Amino acid sequence: MDKYKVDIVDSLTASEFKRNYLKPGRPVLIKGAIKHWQATQGWGTRYFKQHFPDQQVPVKRFEKGNIIKEAMPLGDYCDQLDAYERGEGEFPAYCHDIPIFHALPELKQEINDFPSNFMPIAYSNWWKYCQFFLGPSQSVTPLHFDCLLTHNLFFQIKGTKRFTLLPYEDSRHCGRYGWRWFKLDPEQPDLQQYAQYDKDKAVVVDVEAGDILFMPSGTLHHVRSMDTCVSFNIDFHNQHSAWRGVKALYEGIPVTNFYYNFLCLLRLMKLLPERVFFRLYKGYLNYVS
Ligand SMILES: O=C(O)CCC(=O)C(=O)O
Ligand SMILES: [Fe+2]
């Protein structure tokens, strides 16, 4: 088998993407692909404070295997981030996984030429499926794979995130708990406890403002923010990954996730119109588990 790696390219057409990465399930980093977006040039704490100070946002803390959630106005949250980066105030929670373009549709205008042709036509209203992240430097999302076994296109708008990636096959060596989380810390692996874990397989890739990272279905990822970061992703299925997500019923996927995967499969097979599909699917965007 080829060594596990992440290709780094300067540009990619939709057909190259599908042929070389989506279909064979290989990760790729597209450098500078969205550098020219207004979002990449403007979004940050100052921008959000100025335009949407009263927007309520949920924030999360990842603490010893538990996720603790609260909500606050975006303006106050941005103040906390700025204070923390100045060396004042405590470590802020992480505004993690929110369907931003539903809450703030104006933002769509700042995403110039979104590459929606990288995804199946079912995602032509791509903005409905995006999840947003805003957080302080040194935020960590622990090792996991995405809960529906979707593919993930990750758009880095501001700051740098350090991703550590592992292939799905390695999940059995990483101290899995629940459906999709792992106890192993790939930045400081406990090689006595996880003796089967092959640390040389982990690939570290810095995703900078203006880059797009593609992680195929089932990729294990640990993510560290190196600065205050703004990002969003789109979790999407093609028929192959949707089938995989449906068959995961035999591997312990939660029934709710199975249900969302089944809906995606019907949609991709053109057996559900978008309006009906989205009515049933939209609960997923605030569920993500
Ligand atoms: O950016 C992060 O901290 C986490 C990203 C992530 O896990 C995802 O996009 O699926
Ligand atoms: Fe993820």
From TrEMBL:
<protein>
    <recommendedName>
        <fullName>JmjC domain-containing protein</fullName>
    </recommendedName>
</protein>
<dbReference type="InterPro" id="IPR003347">
    <property type="entry name" value="JmjC_dom"/>
</dbReference>
<dbReference type="InterPro" id="IPR041667">
    <property type="entry name" value="Cupin_8"/>
</dbReference>
<feature type="domain" description="JmjC">
    <location>
        <begin position="103"/>
        <end position="253"/>
    </location>
</feature>
<dbReference type="Pfam" id="PF13621">
    <property type="entry name" value="Cupin_8"/>
</dbReference>
